[in-house]
Write a structure and sequence with these properties.
170 residues; 0% strand
């Protein structure tokens, strides 16, 4: 595979992992969508200063962007050391069941949203790893609950204000 194309694919996967369109990414870097598209397709190479900007924005090394190094490892799993024995599980379930039904419904909704976010991150991570010919990692990084709740709250507030529709079009 041509190295320019491989580099473009790396850039594309990083953009998609952030759920950005080419136009949104281009605006972030102060370039046109057409220029950004040429970098992703491998038709042209970004200048050094823009390569550094890509590196900082996407949180990867310039060597990775150039296709010289493997992708960075995924963030540590915050739940890796969490183990519950049977008594702990019973206690958690008892506390959950003692909550009012509307609170349980809200908690269930949050857990489902967290699971959706984890699946989306896993797909994005697997896509990036496949681009670099590495085996997908079995670890799923969920982020912190606080981060996910805050993001969902902002999305819901924006939807209620009518600034975005269900399809992300404002």
């Amino acid at each position: 595979m041509d190295m320019k194309i491989k580099r473009g694919q790396i850039l594309r996967q990083l953009r998609l992992a952030r759920h950005l369109t080419q136009n949104e990414a281009a605006e972030n870097f102060g370039i046109s969508q057409q220029t950004y598209q040429k970098y992703e397709s491998g038709k042209t190479e970004p200048p050094y200063d823009l390569l550094c900007d890509f590196s900082v924005f996407y949180g990867v090394t310039t060597d990775y962007l150039l296709g010289l190094n493997p992708p960075p490892p995924p963030p540590p799993n915050p739940f890796a050391g969490l183990t519950l024995n049977e008594d702990d599980e019973k206690e958690v379930l008892a506390k959950y069941m003692s909550m009012p039904p509307e609170v349980r419904a809200m908690m269930l909704k949050i857990l489902l949203q967290l699971a959706d976010a984890a699946r989306a991150r896993q797909v994005a991570n697997n896509t990036i790893q496949q681009t670099t010919n590495q085996n997908p990692s079995p670890m799923v990084y969920c982020g912190t609950i606080g981060e996910e709740l805050e993001r969902r709250k902002r999305e819901e507030e924006a939807t209620q204000k009518g600034t975005i529709s269900k399809f992300g079009v404002g």
